[in-house]
Amino acid sequence: MLAILGGSGLTQLANLQITRRQVMRTPYGEPSGALTFGTLGGHEVIFLARHGYGHTIPPHLVNYRANLWALKQEGVTRVVSVASVGGIRADLVPGTLVVPDQIIDYTHGRESTFVDGTDTAVIHTDFTHPYSAPLRSRLLSAARLADTNCLDGGVYAAVQGPRLETIAEIDRMERDGADMVGMTGMPEAILARELGLGYATIAAVVNHAAGRGDSRDSVSLEEVGKVAQRVMVQVRTLLECVVQCDGD
Ligand code: HPA
Fold first, then answer.
1. How far away, in angstroms, is 86 Cα from ligand 1 center?
2. What is the rounded end-to-end Cα distance, in angstroms, of the chain?
3. Whole-angstrom distance, CA of residue 26 vs CA of residue 66
4. Could you tell which of 167, 181, 205, 231 is best to mutate to test the pocket of ligand 1, judged by most ligand atoms within 8 Å of the CB?
5. Is residue 205 helix, strand or coil?
6. Checking CA distances to 73, which of 16, 193, 222, 223 falls within 20 to 30 Å?
7. Cα-to-centroid distance, 120 and ligand 1 (Å)
């Protein structure tokens, strides 16, 4: 089964026919909210709002381990994450959708592994390609079917938040090779990998990163909200196509 992890701007899926909600407990604590079971375009999915249904959980306090553990427990094999990002690369302007293919992790102090040294041997996890290739292809095929412009590939820089970045930080990320910046991509991606879940992200660019484009002097949070509302309409349509597309 496929799960959708919604981020900022996507705390609900208007086109989801809800069948039930389930509160979950895990060895890692409680997920961000009850899992929402339903059908999207006739296909079963589970939806979870990463920041809680009232958008009250900041990125550094999301219980990423509980979220992914709960999804796995309910039979999820693939997770499509939706995440808002700031665009660093010049063509990643507000309103753009992109399916990243690489990650740089700048977060700190988050519970970032299930390998916690309690009762299992140390396990190292291959993370050369942090996203699932088949699931990325499926997202991109769905975008073509939905006639939605969605760019293939880019480096996602995961930052701690909840503050936005300084210009010098964005300059450094650009030198590092980052194309976009967001606050939730890690540890979500590695935790999904540790659990053997296919994982890929639809990144929605909601602003120019600090110091870029019209964020040269500041990032307008009012504008971010407006763009997010607009772009999430496209994302909802795209998700409907994703669940209908065959494949991984
Ligand atoms: N920086 C970090 N995270 C973000 C941004 C940003 O500019 N926009 C949306 N999420």
1. 4
2. 10
3. 6
4. 181
5. strand
6. 16
7. 36
On the question of a cis peptide bond just before residue 162, with omega within 30 degrees of 0, the verdict is yes
- Residue 244, Cα to own-chain centre: how many angstroms? 20
Q: How much is the pTM? A: 0.96
Q: What is the CATH number of domain 2-244?
A: 3.40.50.1580
One-letter identity of residue 48 = L
Of 245, 5, 15, 36, give the one whose Cα is nearest residue 135.
245
Calculate how far, in angstroms, residue 122's C-alpha sits from the geometric centre of ligand 1.
34
214 backbone φψ class: left, alpha, beta (φ>0; ψ -120 to 50): alpha
Q: Does ligand 1 come within 6 angstroms of the Cβ of 84? A: yes
Distance 18 CA to ligand 1 centre (A): 30
Provide φ and ψ at 11, rounded to 5°: -90, -10
Nearest atom of ligand 1 to the alpha carbon of 165 = 1
